[in-house]
Amino acid sequence: MTKSRIILGALLIGSLLTGTAQAQSKSGQPITPMKVGSTTLNLGIGVGAPYDGHYNGNAFGTKIAAEWGLWQAGPGVITLGGEFGGSFSNKSYYNDHDHWQARTIVLAMRSAWHYGWKVKGLDTYGGLSAGIGFERYGYEDHRENDVIPVFGGFVGASYFFTPGFGVNAEAGYDITNFQVGVVFKLK
């Protein structure tokens, strides 16, 4: 219930901050979500990625990513940015002493190719990420820590209701295997 309230609140705030109709921008032109010079920020929650096989049960994940449109590449735009998030797993077996936990906090760079398909407000993309993960896993009485390299691949789509606010979904093997959230176009 709390996650639903957070998402609903973010949607409401984003709508109020960027309250322009989707069909046209102030200049009367269709919304083009990602261009050279654009900056986006997305926040999502979903199913976490099971790094190094240390996860038991279903992992929860959360991620924040920022991207900057740098180069025109055919009909799309190549972006470069960064991401930060975590993937968390808990599972109890027979008693409290068999409570397994695993978590990985990730800091990574990411790059993607964005394309809008000539649909107002739509931005689809695919990309790669690479960075470092700080992992902690084990039982209550014995935990281990590792620093691991992390590499990912992802595909995603954003739909902008206004020139500066939309919803986002992403899938792949990254900080999350699947996530939904909100996206803001800052520039």
Descriptive key words:
single chain, 187 residues, mainly beta, Porin, 8-stranded antiparallel beta barrel, 1 helix, disordered N terminus, Outer membrane protein beta-barrel domain-containing protein, signal
Write the layout of secondary structure elements.
Layout: H1 2-17, E1 39-48, E2 60-73, E3 76-92, E4 99-115, E5 122-139, E6 142-162, E7 165-173, E8 176-185
Antiparallel strand pairs: 1-2, 1-8, 2-3, 3-4, 4-5, 5-6, 6-7, 7-8
Organism: Pinibacter aurantiacus
Protein name: Outer membrane protein beta-barrel domain-containing protein
Keywords: Signal
Characterize the structure shown.
- The chain is mainly beta.
- It has a single domain, classed as Beta Barrel (Porin).
- Helices cover 9% and strands 62% of the residues.
- The protein has one helix at 2-17, and strands spanning 39-48, 60-73, 76-92, 99-115, 122-139, 142-162, 165-173, 176-185.
- An 8-stranded antiparallel barrel has the order 1-2-3-4-5-6-7-8.
- A hairpin with a 2-residue loop joins strand 7 and strand 8 (176-185).
- The longest helix is centred in the first third of the chain and has 16 residues, at 2-17.
- Residues 1-30 have low confidence and may be disordered.
Average of the residue pLDDT scores: 81
Q: Please report the first level of CATH classification, the CATH class.
A: Mainly Beta
Q: Give the helices and strands as they follow along the chain.
A: HEEEEEEEE
Largest sheet: 8 strands, antiparallel, barrel
SS-derived structural category: mainly beta
The radius of gyration is 18 Å
The largest beta-sheet arranges its strands as 1-2-3-4-5-6-7-8
Q: What is the strand tally?
A: 8
Per the principal axes of the C-alpha atoms, what is the gross shape?
A: elongated
The domain count comes to 1
Strand residue percentage: over 45%
So how many helices? 1
Query: Roughly how many Å apart are the termini?
Result: 33 Å
Note poorly predicted spans: 1-30
CATH architecture: Beta Barrel
How helix-rich are the residues, as a percent range?
Answer: under 10%
What is the CATH topology classification name?
Answer: Porin
